[in-house]
């Protein structure tokens, strides 16, 4: 997949994949305290766009085995694997669709450093390779300019507008639909 940057060769066992600055690894029970603390510290950054688990009980739900979901922590390799954010592929559909809905967030201490950009560049080859997906969609509230810029950098294209698509923060919110498909096979 020439369209994606090369991965580093020194991927520690704990990472599914890693780049020079970040590694992706599964959510683990022992990450609950750090993850929920980072989510609470980042409440102002995330509001009104997303609401990651801020308490252990809610975090435990992300650990539930679900074949329609793949979730990963974004870890800052320069900070000894400190959790910088997360990326999820939700609502995975198999069969002729081979699609999933992308979710992501960066924590306040890591915001603005390009770590989530690199995380998406690592996630896409995994989604289109081992996960066997053909398409990912990101649904973004129109005023969330940072999120729109992130998916644009990752190669997503705008596909449409859905009024009152998702119930978030007590109201039905409009969303722009952005998508990317797997690169065509070589030759």
What this model shows, in words?
With 187 residues, the chain is of the alpha+beta class. It has one domain (17-181): Aminopeptidase, CATH 3.40.630.30. It contains 5 helices and 8 strands. Strands 1-2-3-4-5-6-8-7 form an 8-stranded mixed sheet, with helices on both faces. Strand 7 and strand 8 form a beta hairpin. The longest helix is centred in the middle third of the chain and has 14 residues, at 115-128. The model is unreliable at 1-9 (pLDDT under 50).
| Percentage of residues in strands | 25-35%
| Secondary structure: number of strands | 8
Overall SS class? alpha+beta
The helix tally amounts to: 5
CATH topology: Aminopeptidase
Helix content: 10-25%
Q: Note the main sheet.
A: 8 strands, mixed
| Rough outline | globular
Pick out the low-confidence regions. 1-9
The total domain count is 1
CATH superfamily: Gcn5-related N-acetyltransferase (GNAT)
Q: What is the straight-line distance between the termini?
A: 12 Å
Average of per-residue pLDDT values: 91
Q: Numbering strands along the chain, what is their spatial order in the largest sheet?
A: 1-2-3-4-5-6-8-7
CATH class: Alpha Beta
Order of helices and strands: EEHHHEEEHEHEE
CATH architecture: 3-Layer(aba) Sandwich
Oligomerization status of the protein chains: single chain
